[in-house]
Amino acid sequence: MPGKLAWGLLSLPHSLLIYRTTQKEGEASVALRHFDLQWAVPTCLTFLPEFGSFAMRRRDLLSLISLSLPPLLFDSPFRSLLHAAPAAGGEQDADVVIIGGGLGGCAAALAAARTGCRVVLTEETDWLGGQVSSQAVPPDEHYQIETSGCTASYRELRSAIREYYRQHMPLTAVAHGTKNLNPGGGSVSRICHEPRVAVAALYKLLGPHIASGNLTILLNHRPIAAQTDGDKVLNVTCQNHWTGEKIELSGTSFIDATETGELLPLTGTEYVTGFEAQSETNEPHAPAKAQPNNHQAATWCFPIQYIEGGDFTIPKPEQYDFWQAYVPPLKPAWPGKIFSWTYSNPSTLQPRTLAFDPQKEAAGWWLYRRIAAAKNFLPGAYPGSISLVNWPQNDYLEGNFYDVPGEEQQKHFHGAKQLSLSLMYWMQTEAPRPDGGTGWKGLRLCPEVSGTEDGLAKYPYIRESRRIRARFTVFEQHISKDARMQETGLDADEVKAAAFHDTVGVGSYRLDLHPSTEGDNYIDLASLPFEIPLGALIPQRMKNLYAGCKNLGVTHLSNGCYRLHPVEWNIGESAGMLAAHCHEQKCNGEAIHSSPEKLAAFQKRLEQSGVQLHW
């Protein structure tokens, strides 16, 4: 009988993997062909005769590749070859099971795998990286990031991103020789870059552990159930949302690194959402009563490119009229319609106007999150610079994305996408220009950058997660500059954030809270370089489940500076190391946290692995 034949494309950042699988009588063979897609490639590409041949424009090719990834991971033989994944619909056990493949999850997987543990990492989308990739958010980092204030492995990630550009992209001589290369030159970060490059850099770090068999990665999988025995997690069931197949993952330790703390309700772990009451936290800016449904705005980000003389106007979105007239219902009041170059200054809440001029690439909205500066590349490599839209104008305030019924969640997902598409349409047709005209028809969505058909990010940027009821919770008064000055009596030059005896890392960022779904305008407070306490990663009751990202023990307020890229990475890395350490020592996180000797030994191990514990 003839065997079953399948073939397809797998998109890797700026490269193409063509595969063909043949399955017959329980055996499978895989043929692979790999092509490097440099940005300087010719406009036509011819494939090998055995796969047929065709030619197309480079942009169309990249769009095809970006859209091909999820549905073309057809056969388990190829999926197994790439990720050492188990057979679909089966079971797998590991030493450490990590649910969620964002920055925290990847850092946890890397840390645990480097110790020799067997690790399973799942990710809901088809891109690892979370906010830096599938959510299309350039790194938000502090000003000391090049020399201090992050882990050694986070520096490896940043170096891998820069090295990718030097090895695979046609940089100018000046850009190639720039030590701290900022590919996009965006003002928000010292390393604004394209999402796909972050995916490539992550695979560079994780690749050796995939090859060794220590790390299994399951893309397109989300958790749907969990089994517990008292205060211990036994297994988590995940489902492939393309095929519907389920897999049961068992382990010694589990890390929740999902964007919204999905394991917490599934495992019955106690958690908090929204704004805590001041009577509980004693935080100066907390409300008198708890507001569990008051979440920070989420944002559906998207990349845009400006090409002079082009007309890339999208069809009018179905909700455009609603969003074009929308005034955010906030107190203190927003200065006007959401579609405007004027917004509330986060620090003063007074109206502030920023320029938008993609033609001149002037400072303002365009430069803010620019991820590809055409001037950094050889002529012709980019027809125009690319900027990332993660602005107040597409902050979604009409509802929450979790702990709501499924239909309501889908309504808000759709609404957030419609807001972003409507903002794009407004910029193309109605937005005021410096020359007195309206609209920038030369703006285009970039599906080849986002990896999606509609040009929006694969997943929304959700700033605020469910948060564990932890052994220790970080409050505003631990890190706020004003609160610390009042508590210590020290002046601005002397005051420091609270020191934690159980520190497992550091971070630095303002207490930056975006407007919220129950009507709060910005809360933006000066903070001090802070530490990450181990107690914030460990639930009060559960013995083998740990927080691996922004679902740690923080409040609505302190979350504002613990959610950023390098901090999330540090949280995940320390959680992964904790899980591995517990596996080796045959104990749990509570035992390490409650023993000064065991805690000191664990902290020493963190420092030896490159985790900075103090400022």
List the helices and strands and how they pair.
Elements lengths: L3 E9 L2 E10 L2 E10 L21 H11 L7 H8 L7 E9 L3 H12 L4 E4 L29 H17 L4 H4 L18 H18 L2 E4 L2 E9 L2 E9 L5 E11 L6 H5 L3 E2 L5 H4 L16 E2 L2 E5 L13 H5 L17 E3 L6 E3 L11 H4 L1 E3 L13 E4 L5 E2 L9 H24 L13 E3 L1 H4 L16 E2 L7 H4 L1 H8 L14 E5 L3 E3 L9 E3 L4 E4 L11 E3 L11 H4 L2 H21 L3 H6 L1 H13 L7
Parallel strand pairs: 4-5, 4-9, 5-6, 9-24
Antiparallel strand pairs: 1-2, 2-3, 7-8, 8-9, 10-19, 11-17, 12-16, 12-18, 13-14, 15-16, 20-23, 21-22
Protein name: Putative FAD-binding dehydrogenase
GO molecular function: L-aspartate oxidase activity
Organism: Roseimaritima multifibrata
Protein traits:
single chain; 615 residues; FAD/NAD(P)-binding domain; 3 domains; globular; FAD/NAD-bd_sf; NadB; L-aspartate oxidase activity; Putative FAD-binding dehydrogenase
